[in-house]
Specification:
Elements: E1 2-4, E2 9-11, H1 35-42, H2 52-55, H3 59-81, H4 86-102, H5 111-124, H6 128-142
Antiparallel strand pairs: 1-2
Length: about 140
């Protein structure tokens, strides 16, 4: 979201395609917190959230939300310090990407870094089609 002071307008920019009649959501709290913490934050608004992230929350989804950024940073650090470990790190990187997308957390500030690192891992492995695929995803989400 961007707020333009001169026009006093709030601009909302989608990070992915939106289908016709698809419901959109706005998060009133910090999405990277556990469901219990999010519900506590929402108590001041006088309603209980019924979004999928809250209704279908599990210990695993709460852990992902709370640890996502540090997991991304750990994998990036490992890849930067040991570029030859791209093959070994590819599966954990792809698994983390899949978990983040499934939870609908692919809007956070660290997610583009994950996409870029995946593109670089594929480049290191000389898989140019996958490298370009992830580079395009990274460019799309960064613009």
């Amino acid at each position: 979201m961007k707020f333009d002071i001169p026009t006093f307008c709030l601009q909302v920019i989608a990070l992915r395609d939106i289908k016709a009649n698809q419901q959109l959501f706005y998060c009133y709290c910090q999405p990277h917190h556990s469901v219990k913490e999010r519900q506590r934050q929402l108590a001041t608004y006088g309603f209980e959230c019924q979004c999928n992230a809250c209704v279908d929350a599990t210990a695993e989804s709460d852990n992902l939300r709370e640890e996502m950024d540090s997991r991304i940073l750990m994998l990036i650090g490992e890849l930067l310090t040991h570029p030859q470990s791209s093959g070994r790190l590819l599966d954990p990187l792809l698994k983390l990407e899949k978990e983040i997308v499934k939870e609908g957390l692919d809007f956070g500030p660290m997610f583009p870094h994950l996409l870029y690192v995946l593109s670089q891992a594929y480049l290191e492995l000389k898989n140019l089609p996958k490298h370009e695929e992830y580079l395009k995803k990274w460019v799309k989400i960064k613009t």
